[in-house]
Predict the structure.
Amino acid sequence: MATTDLVKGVRTTRSTIALKLLMAASGIVFILFVLVHMYGNLKAFAGHDAYNEYAEHIRTIGTPILPRTGALWVLRVMLIVSLVAHVAAAVALWQRASKARPVRYEVKRNLSSSLSSRTMRWGGITLLLFIIWHLINFTIGKVNVSGGATNDPYNLLVDSFDTWWLTVIYLIAMLALGLHLHHGTFSALQTLGLTNTLTSRTRARVLGWTVAIVIAGGFSLVPLFTLFGVIDK
Amino acid sequence: MKLTLKIWRQADASAAGAMHTYELDGVSSDMSFLEMLDLLNEQLLTSGEEPVAFDSDCREGICGMCSLMINGQAHGPEVTTTCQLHMRSFTDGDTITIEPWRASSFPVLKDLVVDRTAFDRIIQNGGYISANTGSAPEANSVPAPRDKAMRSFNAATCIGCGACVAACPNGSASLFLGAKITHLGELPQGQPERYSRVASMVAQHDHEGFGGCTNIGECAAACPKEIPLDVISQLNRDLRTAIKQGF
Ligand code: HEM
Ligand code: SF4
Ligand code: FES
């Protein structure tokens, strides 16, 4: 017996789930990026010359086939595209959700949702603000809050994190990142349809914890050890 | 026991509603939650007030007609339907807040009654399989793997009550949708329409104004039938396949 397709002209690519798939894909691009970025930062423990050499090396990957900073720009464009997609989808879904549940309950108990899952949106805004500041700080603007030189990556890093309040800002951002990744990792796997059993769901949750702790914890080491004087000029 | 009830009262779909407080005495711990409301309504009738409207049908936990947000939990503090919730779950002197399901796709019709026909329209858009009518087919002619049959049957226990939507901060019906997709998509009989079904049902879900899922899991915690979150993963996977297949 032949059956007919149920609908004609339905656009699956315009559905809420498609938006979520976009968020999951761009989120995974971010996770891979921050993982590598975090690992690279640990070069600061190897001292001035090793760190600056690493900073220079990123710019010469792929040369002479690619121009200087060529590979870096490929990565940057990928990240910018992902960020625009991720934030646009987040805003669209946020608006949709507010329309779908406009009336608050007089009393509402949260039974199983984690703090991280409930703070994805405001946490995401925190991350966005942080990303803007972070780029001004180290990439686009190169702002040295203690007034020192900005042409030496290692010294800019040490000067920045010797400033206690800047270290605090970075640590708060890492807390936000850890929370976002704790739920985001699990959520991305679920959105991609990879958690169809209890076991795979449990594994995805464990992976969420691991990714959050490794990345947020790893990033926090350099600011902390600089503040405590282990990493210095 | 003696209770203080705070109940949402709303004259009709277009009227503005408000919380009203009632004192109710003589509640037995053996009463079901709905019998307790019946008692309140008798009291309201004798005093000439309009009784509180609420939904119920089977009162056996199988039809999915009863609803109610009780003290901030869909179907109240136990993992069951409101009709199967008993007053022994409460203690003398308790204050109980009772609200309707809140979602713009489930508009309030009166007091605690909401319109859940959005679910019916989702089902109409693919929540079935095509089968020949006539004499019943031989039961064992289509083999079904046991694990898939079990998963399908578990998902099929969804009674369409809407507690998942009520508990979801995004007003998403993903758990309901996932239950139907898993129920029909796991069995051989559901294969021919599998991907057009998910495309169509998701489109209707979105069209009804339900929100997107953020995988926070409040739905599964509220579900009286303990439908697990993995049905949403299945829904997402089937939709992903539908996209690949060009729906
Ligand atoms: C730029 C600011 C950002 C905003 C506004 C934002 C916002 C959001 C929102 C609202 C969600 C959906 C939450 C949910 O589904 O429960 C989400 C998911 C996610 N975010 Fe972000 N985020 C941002 C940056 C990041 C960054 C920097 C990363 C990675 C390091 C990231 C990784 C993820 C992942 C993996 C998901 C899960 C996708 C899914 O639910 O399927 N996000 N984000
Ligand atoms: S999934 Fe559970 S909560 Fe949602 S409609 Fe079905 S039975 Fe009710
Ligand atoms: S009245 Fe039928 S399930 Fe509660």
